[in-house]
Amino acid sequence: MFRIAKRVFIVVALSLIIIISSILYVPSTTQFIIEYAAAQYLGHTLTVESYRVNGSSLSLSGTFDDNSSIRISATRLLSPYRRIKINTATNVAFFSHVSKSKLPKIAFDATMLWTQDRLQLDARILEGSLKAQMDTNTLDYRYTLEHADIARFLADQDLPAYATGFINAVGRGSANSSSSHTGKITSYNMKMLKPLISAIKLQALQAPAALDASVKYTYEDDHVTGEISADTELYTFFFDRTDYSLKQHSIQSDYRISTHSNRPFNLKGDNALKGKLTYKDDNLDVETATSTMHEPLYIHYHPARLKVISNNIPIATVTSILNLPNAVYGHFGLDAAADLNTTHPKVILNAVSEDLTLNAELSKEFNLTRPAALKLTVSSEASSRYWADVGLHTEDDSIKGNMHLNYDVSTRLAVFEGRLNRLTLPWYRGRNIALRATADPLKRQLSDAHIETPFESISIPRLNAKDGLRAKVDFSVRRLDRFVRGADSTLTLKGHSNI
Asked: For residues 217 and 194, what is the distance between their CA atoms, to the nearest angstrom?
């Protein structure tokens, strides 16, 4: 039995010696093994152009089927103090077969040095430099990327010229699957160009628009957490406690959006929008508020459907954000839904307020010292027509009425029809006041406008407010004794005016 085992050992040992010798000293055998390994592991055909081995030293150079090149030189291969140097000029997409995913096209020229317990990489990539080190015992690594050209990256991906500028990045972690990775990415001298500004719908920015951005992140257990900040000449965006799940493709984050000035919106100070957002299974939920809002506004978006709800929005907050004068105070509730799956969205909107008041000047002018209730309903079909109904009723019954609006998107014309059952002002009192007009909001024109009361008639055939106010007005007033004491009750005043 011992003799049989001895013979088997001798046969196996001799076979290994022959195989190792053929690999090290028979170029054709070595070339075949290397080319076969490259095809299986990298998914690319390697043509070995030169190969030389001398004891425990080796040198090799070759070209892959995509014209990538590789040069390998190694010394003391069989010693713990081995030194292997690899020079390559290739593309990140070259390794898509290894990663089993499509990688971006990023050309680089790298030198990798493997010594006793350290793997070191120096590369030129995107006109910048990448330096990385790994401890081959603990598999801990760290890297630094400097001056990576954003325009070069976009051009390599055949993408539009969205931006110019440079990226820096630092990171550290471990190649052990249970370990985490932390890093930071910052931009400098970055400018957004017109294609990007149009894509993100920020037309208020003028191209090229400066952008300073940074990302701090930690990757652990298939989650990426961290914070993102972006600062432009108009807006500042900050996302904190951001959590992205790679398995569920879901995002949770706190956010804050503010502006540096009052234009295009005033989101400075207490007007800054802040809240939470969640994205999962194609559903986006956003909770937003300002420091002056008692309750947040809730937005829910599902592909082609939008829902907005809020119970207590201060009107002063809205007018401040929109840079409008503080003429009206109070709060309103909002419940709106839209079906976005059509050319012209189908909309249902209800807004209600019970405590509308005017500022001191207007309250005195119109004698409105008591709060008013307002109800607004907007609806549409999946067509180009929208309807709106407005009801207004003051607490002391000095004003009571309603108005109906019909807007046609195809003609861009809005038709108003309304009736005030009662109107009591310091300088006028009336009942059953009918109003009708046709307006073109884009041209800022009013036509075929009429105001009718039991005693007055006002007709405005045309009014244009685009370049200064111009209007033609016809009027008729009956029962002048209502205004002039002792006047004949049968007198009627008619007139015509051009403004």
From this structure: 29
Return the SS3 of 269.
Answer: helix
3-class SS letters over 409-458: CCCCEEEEEEEEEEEEECCEEEEEEEEEEEEECCCCEEEEEEEECCCEEE
DSSP-derived secondary structure for 340-389 = -SSSS-EEEEEEEEEEEEE-HHHHHHHT--S-EEEEEEEEE-SSSEEEEE
pLDDT in tens, 125-139: 889 999 989 888 888
Q: Which two tokens stand for residue 380?
A: 């549409």
The label of the residue with tokens 């249970």 reads 178
**Tokens 């081959």 found at:** 136
Cβ(98)–Cβ(38) below 8 Å: no
Nearest to residue 464, comparing CAs of 488, 447, 483?
Answer: 447
3-state helix, strand, coil in the chain (%, to 5): 15, 55, 30
- What do you get for the CA distance between the two ends of the chain, in Å? 123
* Beta bridge partners of residue 349, listed in sequence order: 336, 378
Under DSSP, the state recorded for 12 is H
Angle at 467 between CA 464 and CA 468, to 5 degrees: 75
Per DSSP, the chain holds a count of helices (H) and strands (E) of 7, 30
pLDDT band at 38 (very low <50, low <70, confident <90, very high): low
Q: Is this structure's pTM higher than 0.85?
A: no
Helices 2-25, 27-42: crossing angle, 10 deg rounding: 90
Contacts of 237 (CB under 8 A, 6+ apart): 228, 229, 230, 231, 255, 256, 257
